[in-house]
Amino acid sequence: MDFIQEHLAGYGVSEQMVVYLSNIIMVLCIALLSIVANLVAKKIVLKIIIHIINNNRYTWDNFFLEKKVFHKLSHLAPAFIIYYAAPIFPLYQSFIVKFALAYMIIVTITVFNALLDAIDAIYRTYEVSKMRPIRGYIQVAKIILYIIGAIVVISNLMGQNPLILLSGLGALSAVLMLVFKDSILGLVAGIQLSSNDMVRVGDWIEMPKYNADGNVIDITLNTVKVMNFDKTITMIPSYALISDSFKNWRGMEASGGRRIKRSVCIDTSSICFCTKEMIEQFQKVHYLSDYVTARLDEIHAYNIEHHINRESKVNGRQLTNIGVFREYVQEYLRNHPKIHKDMTLIVRQLAPGDSGLPLEIYAFSNETTWGVYESVQSDIFDHIFAIIPLFGLRVFQNPTGQDIVNLKERKEYSAGY
């Protein structure tokens, strides 16, 4: 400044103009120097850093470039120039220093914000991120960062100690609790969800209260994002997963087996004892030949031992078509390549009702993928429905309009005949 003023005075410029012109020239020089520092930081230093990161053997540091951590850090270069040039203007030094510091604090906050995003992105590349997501903790850290940054900026502009502002927050605690209620509840819920391993990214969860039925695609501080199978997205509050019940299908997927639980209703009027012709037919069936032979020998031995009068089928023990059919279905499932052999397999009768006798199949497919599972289940019941008539059984079905029409036509034909 003295150098510029001496040269201006040497040109015969008045003393008042010397002060104005010297200030303008210094401002222009500082502005030019700040522009040069910004260009050097972005065009030279930043490019060198990018080149080093792109050409090393590590991949995690690429996330720092993706989140623009170094780009935002480069904004500090001109701020340092302005900060250290403040003593040149004694009258405005305090004003310049305060705003330069405020700018540097804000830039630092954005740098740490980008750094936290990069840490989250790096963590997501590991499998453990699905079991222990840290997105909620990152958001809490950002909230704390913003609060501390705002306090420091305000205290700097006011020229007060930040502790004085912090002491005043006690009176605002009730307001803060109200404003950040969801965030606080979400933080507590996130800790419980993570520590108890209740839900992970990629889990299939079902929560009818929120019409959620699909895969978890994101877990944040306040919400859990679920993509339903109809491609809609449901946002569930994090604390709702703690306070309300939901179903997580992860256990099914991890076990390698998916349950098949479906009934076939048999018309009870078609159930009967097996005739000789039926037994001969059953002995030709691959899955039944050994069973029928063994059961006939057992029944014959029992009836002889207990001196059963065989003239009436009511006496003693007899094979029934429903019993043989149940055994056939059991053996068919045991030999089916898509049925899990190490899990429960039951073919049982349920209580008969208005819809006949329900014969329930309780088994597990060794395919958990939805489409494959449905195909396996459909193939099994296609076969069961097709073979039911071979056992002299009928599937129960309520009469349809066409059944009534056919009955009416038969009556009219009989009457005409």
Question: SSE layout and pairings?
Answer:
Elements: H1 2-10, H2 15-54, H3 62-66, H4 69-73, H5 76-85, H6 93-124, H7 128-131, H8 135-158, H9 162-168, H10 173-179, H11 181-195, E1 204-207, E2 212-219, E3 223-228, E4 233-237, H12 240-243, E5 247-248, H13 250-255, E6 258-266, H14 276-282, H15 289-305, H16 321-334, E7 346-349, E8 357-365, H17 370-387, H18 401-416
Antiparallel strand pairs: 1-2, 1-5, 2-3, 3-4, 6-8, 7-8
Helix pairs in contact: 1-2, 2-5, 5-6, 6-8, 8-9
Keywords:
Alpha-Beta Plaits; MscS_channel_2nd; 417 residues; five-stranded antiparallel sheet; three-stranded antiparallel sheet; alpha+beta; SH3 type barrels; transmembrane helix; single chain; LSM_dom_sf
Could you explain how this protein is built, in words?
It comes from Paenibacillus rhizoplanae. Residues 182-250 form the Mechanosensitive ion channel MscS domain. There is one protein chain. By secondary structure, the chain is α+β, with helices and mostly antiparallel strands. Among the domains are: 2-125, no CATH class; 194-254, SH3 type barrels, CATH 2.30.30.60; 258-272 and 320-401, Alpha-Beta Plaits. It has helices spanning 2-10, 15-54, 62-66, 69-73, 76-85, 93-124, 128-131, 135-158, 162-168, 173-179, 181-195, 240-243, 250-255, 276-282, 289-305, 321-334, 370-387, 401-416, and strands at residues 204-207, 212-219, 223-228, 233-237, 247-248, 258-266, 346-349, 357-365. The strands form two sheets. The chain has a five-stranded antiparallel beta sheet. A three-stranded antiparallel beta sheet has the order 6-8-7. Strand 7 and strand 8 form a beta hairpin. Helix 2 (15-54) packs antiparallel against helix 5 (76-85). It starts with a helix and ends with a helix.
